[in-house]
Amino acid sequence: MSLKVVTNLDAEIEVLAKQVVDCAFQVHTTMRAGLLESVYEECFAFELQDRGLHFEKQKRIPLVYKNHKLKLEHRIDLIIEDKIIIELKAVERLLPIHKAQLLSYMHLTDVQLGFLMNFNVPLIKDGIQRLVL
User: Fold this and answer.
1) How far apart (Å, rounded) are the C-alpha atoms in residues 99 and 124?
2) pLDDT for the residue numbered 2
3) Which of 20, 41, 84, 102 is the one with CA 20 to 30 A from 132?
């Protein structure tokens, strides 16, 4: 599978992005479709750790509204090397709100590259969307 590169991201991020996509392939090949999102998240984290990549699961970012930090927080499924955000899904089909959610997280954290990954598909290549700010 080849993902189309839509902008000129730094070469280090592109190498990291290829590893991230490979992690998704490994998880989907092993676990297949039909499981809970939390299962895919744990397996994905295992793959990242196995490759020696730094990541955070369920990273909390504050909800700031009109320069006031409120009680609620956003949670990002995975952020890798502080350079790539992964929003994992296990749904029948991706909706526009899923893309909007990832784009919002990217804007809030100033991360340029994000992947929306739906593991509930027969072929994982059909479940991966790459978003670049």
Assistant:
1) 17
2) 42
3) 41
